[in-house]
Amino acid sequence: MKNVAILGASGYTGAELIRLLAGHPSIRIGALSANSKAGRPIEKVFPHLDHLDLPELVKIEEIDLSALDLVFCALPHRTSQSVIKDFPRDLKVVDLSADFRLRDPAEYERWYGTQHLAPEVQPEAVYGLTEVYRDEISKARLVAGTGCNAMCGLFVLRPLVAAGVADPDDLILDLKCGPTGAGRSATERLLYAELAEGASAYGYGGTHRHLGEFDQELSLAAGRDVRIRFTPHLVPMNRGILATAYVKGDAREVRNALEAAYEGERFVHVMPEGLPSTMSVRGSNLCKIGVAEDRVPGRALVVGALDNLAKGSSGQAIQNANLMLGLPEEAGLEVVPVFP
Ligand SMILES: NC(=O)C1=CN([C@@H]2O[C@H](COP(=O)(O)OP(=O)(O)OC[C@H]3O[C@@H](n4cnc5c(N)ncnc54)[C@H](OP(=O)(O)O)[C@@H]3O)[C@@H](O)[C@H]2O)C=CC1
Ligand SMILES: CC(=O)N[C@@H](CCC(=O)OP(=O)(O)O)C(=O)O
């Protein structure tokens, strides 16, 4: 059995890590941390977990790091950097925050508007897009989980620019996501009364910080600078991301490139026909992708769906931890989507 800690266990991704790890055959949860909720039994914070035998929520500094094989860091941006920089340099870490996603600390400063607190640790980090960086992840000490929007968009767009089947200067990504993507500390825009019957764009006009991840990963895949047009929308569904890409390219070539990229992949599926719905992936570690011809000749539509709390963060984190710990990649993750 591998012994792990979850830091930030009283948040949404922390709860999802607990849910998925409860069914993991080779990982046990040795410690859970919280901040304001430290000292409370986990069932007082998450009543749906009251039947599990789990450790109490404690402050991070109370955890014995030497007893751990790996740490999941589900902490806010910046808190993660300040905690991870003081960890022993041989402790394996899967960080779910944005703190180590961008290879260049100057890019971090550009998108997050604050100085990187651990630039000396950054070179060790491997970007957590498992299906692309599997080999590096299995040898890594520190894996930086992707943004959930970025992951869905990259699954759709990356193979197209890598194979040269879509014009890299003409990529539009229109994305919908639910409020759990913003974490558990609700702000005004996430109040039920203001969200439940409406939808709105946010982070538009090239301002969303996941553009740093898109720029980095799509430019690496294309071997030249790629800048997409990206607009996320907040919609009333608890979990889920639906990413619709409009691309200039032949639909058959687009499909072939996606099928080649994900052939044999356990968790990323290209649908033989039709387009995916968030309901087809909810609660699972799956990403489903569909392709359709546009009515304008030479243009195609590609749609990806994943669960932001599963494949978009905690499921992805467990998949990467499995690789880092030498466990079967799919261990604990064979969860069928919850429907309806
Ligand atoms: N939600 C999502 O879909 C995704 C989230 N992520 C990233 O994962 C990380 C966690 O996200 P999420 O679970 O949604 O966030 P939440 O806001 O739901 O949870 C945050 C957790 O961090 C703890 N925490 C907050 N401040 C501190 C602090 N100063 N010191 C120690 N612990 C602290 C909180 O404890 P307490 O409750 O006691 O205050 C809580 O356990 C974030 O970096 C987020 O950006 C990445 C991809 C997707
Ligand atoms: C609804 C909402 O606000 N969603 C978040 C998704 C956050 C995410 O993917 O995680 P990171 O914060 O770790 O980048 C957003 O678009 O910023």
Output the keywords.
21% strand; seven-stranded mixed sheet; arginine biosynthesis; globular; binds N-acetyl-L-glutamyl 5-phosphate; 29% helix; Dihydrodipicolinate Reductase, domain 2; 10 helices; alpha/beta; cytoplasm; Semialdehyde_DH_NAD-bd
Q: Layout of SSEs?
A:
Elements: E1 2-7, H1 12-21, E2 27-33, H2 42-45, E3 57-58, E4 70-73, H3 79-84, E5 92-95, H4 105-112, E6 125-127, H5 130-139, E7 142-144, H6 148-163, E8 171-177, H7 192-195, E9 200-201, H8 211-222, E10 229-234, E11 241-248, H9 251-262, E12 268-270, E13 287-293, E14 299-306, H10 310-324
Parallel strand pairs: 1-2, 1-4, 2-3, 4-5, 5-7, 6-7, 8-10, 12-13
Antiparallel strand pairs: 8-11, 9-10, 11-14, 13-14
Helix pairs in contact: 1-10, 5-10, 6-8, 6-9
Can you walk through the features of this model?
The chain is of the alpha/beta class and 340 residues long. The protein folds into two domains: 2-145 and 311-324, Rossmann fold (3-Layer(aba) Sandwich), CATH 3.40.50.720; 148-307, Dihydrodipicolinate Reductase, domain 2. 29% of the residues lie in helices and 21% in strands. It contains ten helices and 14 strands. It has helices spanning 12-21, 42-45, 79-84, 105-112, 130-139, 148-163, 192-195, 211-222, 251-262, 310-324, and strands at residues 2-7, 27-33, 57-58, 70-73, 92-95, 125-127, 142-144, 171-177, 200-201, 229-234, 241-248, 268-270, 287-293, 299-306. The strands form two sheets. The protein has a seven-stranded parallel β-sheet, covered by helices on one side. Helix 3 (79-84) links the parallel strand 4 (70-73) and strand 5. Helix 1 crosses helix 10 (310-324) and helix 6 (148-163) packs parallel to helix 8 (211-222). The longest helix is centred in the middle third of the chain and has 16 residues, at 148-163. It starts with a strand and ends in a 16-residue tail after the last helix. The model has no long low-confidence stretch (mean pLDDT 97). The structure holds NADPH dihydro-nicotinamide-adenine-dinucleotide phosphate (NDP) and N-acetyl-L-glutamyl 5-phosphate. NADPH dihydro-nicotinamide-adenine-dinucleotide phosphate binds next to helix 1 and helix 10. It comes from Hasllibacter halocynthiae.
